Fold this sequence. Notes:
Elements: E1 2-13, E2 17-20, E3 23-26, E4 30-31, H1 39-51, H2 57-60, H3 74-86, E5 89-99, H4 109-120, E6 127-132, H5 138-141, E7 145-156
Parallel strand pairs: 5-6
Antiparallel strand pairs: 1-4, 1-7, 2-3, 5-7
Catalytic activity: 4-CDP-2-C-methyl-D-erythritol 2-phosphate = 2-C-methyl-D-erythritol 2,4-cyclic diphosphate + CMP
Domain 2-C-methyl-D-erythritol 2,4-cyclodiphosphate synthase: 1-154
Binding site for 4-CDP-2-C-methyl-D-erythritol 2-phosphate: 8-10, 34-35, 56-58, 132-135, 139, 142
Amino acid sequence: MRIGQGFDVHIFGEGDHVVLGGVRVPHSRGVVAHSDGDVVIHALCDAIFGALALGDIGRHFPPSQEQWRNADSRIFLRHAARLMREQGYALGNADVTVICESPKVGPHAQAMREVVAEELGCDVDRISIKATTTEKLGFTGRGEGIAAQACVLLVMA
């Protein structure tokens, strides 16, 4: 078994939605990011890369490379899943927490779980996506940005 953890954060900017777990979520703001700024998938990728001792998402998809500008983060998750399988692992489970005051994650959590499970090639019951606030404390509490943390358990396939 291998365990990995990941974290991602993006500041809010212009826009009318955020992408979370591959799902377009209506919001009064967007995020400032090189790709689509999907904190759920970015944290998950870092957790998988960490469990495999393969660095972080920036090593695999450098923001200095224009080909990743506005990229759909599901591409990143597919790459992480492929590396996981190539090293002989399967996902035991993934647990993701989105940290923000808004948007509300609950109404979209099931759709996110389904997208992530599909991209990782596993049953949806292995994916947990939940949210919390910081009780108006810090940058997320002030509504300046959004963050996510993820933990994964990889098991021998």
